[in-house]
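Posted in: Structural Biology > Protein-Ligand Complexes

Title: Requesting predicted complex, serine in pocket

I'd be grateful if someone could produce the 3D structure tokens for the following input. Sequence and ligand are given below.
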Amino acid sequence: MKRVLVIGAGGQIGSELVPFLRKKYGNENVIATGRRTKLPETITEHGPWMYLDALNQDSLKKVIYEKSIDIVYHMASILSATGEKMPQTAWDININGLINVLEVSRRYDVERVIWPSSIAAFGPTTPRENTPNETILQPTTMYGITKVAGELLAEYYFKKYGLLTLSMRLPGIISSETPPGGGTTDYAVEIFYEAIKHKKYTCFLREDTMLPMLYQPDCLQCHLDFAEKDPSLFKRHVYNVTGMSFTAGELVAEIKKHIPELKVEYKPDFRQEIADSWPKSIDDSLARKEWGWNPKYDLAAMTKDMIEKLSKRLK
Ligand code: SER
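-- Reply #1 --
Done. Output follows.
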């Protein structure tokens, strides 16, 4: 059985990735680590977990060596909006954390390092519709800059040392367990909580802002595919992936089919400029063709599932 390390297990993706991977690899074989966010009981009650700071190379070495890790998921990151408030911290966590993970992984013969990139790697000079996999990468946010640098760094470790590194350029992730923090696409999660609890929401992006998004079950499957698929399928180290694209207004209209009383106001803040620098839609045909990426959820199916899951939980 493979031994898996998840760094950043308390986050929006990590908190659901750990239980998902434990079903596949066995509870004992998936080690959850966090640094800042408290790990949920769904993680701590069912398998190994510990404190780990990716900025500390020695503690990374210790866990990768002692636990004979085969696959590393490096999920710890500062997102786009927080990154604009503290650019230097974003660089430190996102890049110095990543290079430590890559360096220790190649020294201790880790088989794969899976590290999410983002649509934030694109910028205002990138074609905004149906953005191709191979295109201009000139982001204007610190978060985006760390994603481009990280993509290059991960590929460097493959070319120089043969460490298999794989990255998906994630769009906004919509999920029902752990809310995201500090991102520009967070509105698409917050709105569900507010719609169910208070039937009203103030959106920090304009109504006509269109962004690419992905529902958590598809996001988790993508992470598992990167660990499981035959390495020869991957013709590159970075893949565009997407599940749907919608404007804030279209999401509101879809939620209103379930919660007609919902009232939404639009008060764009500094995050509007970030959203305006990102693609509206993504071309993920290379991921589909090369390793069989095939997301299941569209806007209608995601909205229905989110409302069902959250309504149960928030009662
Ligand atoms: N969800 C991220 C953000 O908004 C994009 O990768 O920062």
